[in-house]
Description:
Elements: H1 2-19, E1 36-37, H2 43-46, E2 76-92, E3 95-114, E4 117-138, E5 147-168, E6 173-194, E7 200-224, E8 229-238, E9 241-242, E10 247-255, E11 260-268, E12 273-274, E13 277-286, E14 290-299, E15 306-310, E16 315-319, E17 326-335, E18 349-357, E19 362-363, E20 366-367, E21 370-382, E22 390-402, E23 408-423
Antiparallel strand pairs: 1-4, 2-3, 2-23, 3-4, 4-5, 5-6, 6-7, 7-8, 7-10, 8-13, 9-12, 10-11, 13-14, 14-17, 15-16, 17-18, 18-21, 19-20, 21-22, 22-23
Amino acid sequence: MKKRIIISLLAGMALLPSMAQVSVSLSPYSQYGLGVLSDQSVGFNRGMGGVAYGMRSGKYVNIQNPASYSAIDSLSMIFDAGVTGEMTNYKEGGKSLNAKTGGFDYAVAGFRLLRHVGLAVGVVPYSNIGYSYIHTNTIGSEGSTTKSTQVYDGSGGFSQVFLGAGWQVTKNLSVGANVSYFWGKYTKTIAMTTNETGANTETRSYTALINNYKIDFGVQWQQFVSSYDMLTVGATFGLGHKLGADADLLIVNSNSSNAAVSSTTLSAENALAIPYSFGVGASVLHKSSLTAAVDYTFQKWSSLDYPLFNNTNGTYSMQSGYYKDRHKVAAGVDWLPKPLGRKFYQLMHYRFGVSYATPYYKIGTQDGPGELAVSAGFGIPLYNSWNNRSTLNISAQWVRSMGCDLIKENMFRVNIGLTFNERWFAKWKVD
């Protein structure tokens, strides 16, 4: 039975890269670096601010710390999938614009492979790229009617299909790892022209295609600190490395008055990379009812270079100082009023969380926008004659991206995730 399931999951994982769709971003900030980074939280912790490193349970798949997979019991087959919709308000210089988008978010599955060993597989987004806007300004001396227009368009993003395992080494200690196929692409275009007769139009198209790997390790320590309180401490480490992808730049100059067109292709070899990352967190479970957790994440982006075009000498090369280290702190709670209760509201999970992340890139000489998020959600139990362990997870999140003299974003995001937790491996007894 388990062999058939493993083969089916691996076959499904091979198809996921062609089926998966990254949730669409509409943020102008997604034009920088590798785009707007995903927090990779799923249904159970989306309403808790994304806390995960010290979270451990056999009722869900915690992909952010693979050591947690060893908590899945021998009877469970867990499948979790989610979709996200979001509405965003953009403000700059007294002007305001609303936009909305949404799409597929994640799909993960997990089960017990061997005694003390859990296995997980799935597809999750890493970052999103998607924007389209126009910037117009007047050039020349005061009173000039010459206007310069820049049209910015971009699309793409990066995802990862992973296979992970967690092993409970001792009663208290567990370790694990996720090995991912990391893939994606982007296209970023800037078209620049003026309203002068016979003016030249220059279009720059930046493209890159990535097919590589990503590896993350995790560890958890679990210990009762009182008769009613279970403490879990976790840590993760992600390997940083070059992604083996060239960044290409196509520059096309055209003139409408004489139909002249010229093009130049530039390339920066092995230009893109992901940073090494470190995360640490802890959670306390009180009387199997109240969970409180905190996380800290560090990503060493400042050690990486990024390809930039130099308009002065016409070169496209790797530059340092574009990225900066990213820090994120998060805290969240999950309250289950009465684990053995009989009333519906007693068996619901009530969740709340907050997080703050610093930017990982610079815009010109100043830092990009920081990101403050507040979230809340519910875990609604699903019951029928054969299943009493599945959950419908609904969460709402308010995210504010802001920086000095930058566009202000206020985003309202709703995630709906369904966690199937079924007893596939129970032995049937016939009287």
